[in-house]
Amino acid sequence: MNVTILRLNPHWNGEKYASLKYRDVVDNLKKKKDLPHIQVLTGIRRSGKSTVFRLMINDLLENGANPKSILLFNLDEPPFTSVWENAAELYKVIETAEKITSVPVKYLFLDEVQQVKDWELFVKGAYDTQRFAKIYITGSNSDLLQNRFATLLSGRYFANTVRPLSLKEIFKISGITDKYTALSDRIKMLTLTDHYLSWGSFPEIVLKTMDNDVKTELLNSYYESIVLKDCIVYNQVRDSALFYKLLHFLLSNAGTPFRYNTLAKAVKSNEATVRNYLGYAHRSYIIADITNFSFSLKEDSRPQHKIYGIDNGLMNVIGFQFMRREEMLLENIVYNELVNSGYDEVSFARGKEECDFIARRNGVYHAFQVCHTLTPANRNREFAGFNVLNDNLKVESKTLITYDSTDTVGDIRVVPVWDFFGTNQID
Question: How far apart, in whole angstroms, are the C-alpha atoms of residue 139 and residue 337?
Fold first, then answer.
């Protein structure tokens, strides 16, 4: 145990973690670092939650914190198996660390805390007794914020989601800081955009140089880890073969409208099981389930659904290959970038035509269509998607997002994806 604790806390020697790429979420976390509230970070595995921890530890070191007063555990590691069934064992591990350093722990970082049974009781007890100045925790399932945790710690925590890199973050990391620098090195900008469309934005895939076959192998490893640990084992799924079949089907048909009963027939199951399995996948962040737009929150007013994957790279190595893949991958990117950019209540509208996305930002609704390549043959059809909007739904803007086309047609803006989400979003 001592060796593991020392390995997980190299900052005890007073040196900051090097070669970390800044994440936008850190700005928000810094604003709250002096408040006693528990800071919860959730998000899919390998999205960079541990890196965010280390960025916050660097900030503590820069501001004069004693390095040995900062303790980091990755509870996913085998040496902590004794803690998994007994949260009280965490106190013994912390005491072991304090014996090593002879310094009381002031800042506690618990990575992948969902591994520990009744962890919320430990966190609440530590918070109530003011055992630490600040507690940071991460988890790979949105269930972390549900049920007993929400009840026990209501009003005592902040929650943020860490997602794979956004296009804005990818551009900033690569030195593209505004539209001018993007256009000055157009080849670099489009190369980054193409890589994002094909290989996604998990930090390791973006930041490390590797052959395509290695990327494929790594993404397959991510997929297996996420599905097995955060879906099948975590939820005690009985029919793992059906779960894999369902998820494979969904990731191969992202953006295609469906109803639960038709989805159940497609995978030869029943509606109740499909709903449960889809919910497990959604809560592990590997997919997002959105519904048709309605001012009513009643389920019978939102019977249609669409699925989008958290990452294009996962979709490319897992899903089937078919004709409209280029279009599907761009639409999947647009969904994720809407979320990354602070839009909420993302839905879609269907009538004789379909509007790909209705999304709210700062209380105002916006409409979006997605078309990879706008041509004379598809132009009218793509613009017609906005016709599904009616007088009951007032939108602030109408935007058709493409791969690399720019235009203005009446009240509709045609904007490249790299411009709308990449350069326009950079501060």
Answer: 22
CB 163 within 8 A of CB 43: yes
d(CA 194, CA 178): 18
Do the Cβ atoms of 402 and 415 come closer than 8 Å?
yes
What pLDDT digit, counting tens, does each position of 294-324 carry? 877 676 678 899 999 999 999 988 875 544 5
From residue 31, give the alpha-carbon distance in Å to each of 27, 34, 39, 59, 229.
7, 8, 12, 12, 33
Distance separating alpha carbons of residues 222 and 4, to the nearest angstrom = 24
Cα–Cα distances in angstroms (integers) from residue 155 to residues 113, 150, 402, in the given order: 20, 9, 42
Tokens of 310: 């958290």
Structure tokens at 249: 């089907």
Burial class (CB in 10 A: 0-12, 13-18, 19+), 251: buried
Longest dimension (CA), the chain: 73
Structure tokens belonging to residue 314: 């996962």
Joined together, the tokens standing for residue 128 give 């109530």
Residue listed under structure tokens 């590691």: 77
pTM to 2 decimal places: 0.93
Residues in the chain: 427
Residues 6+ apart with CB under 8 A from 67: 11, 12, 13, 14, 61
CB–CB of 320/252 below 8 Å?
yes
Q: Which two tokens stand for residue 255?
A: 């953006």
d(CA 273, CA 198): 32
For residue range 125-160, list pLDDT tens digits in order.
Answer: 999 999 999 999 998 888 877 767 777 888 889 999
Buried b (16+ CB within 10 A) or exposed e, 203-215: bebbeeeeeeeeb
Question: Crossing angle for the helix pair 271-283 and 240-252, nearest 10 degrees?
Answer: 70
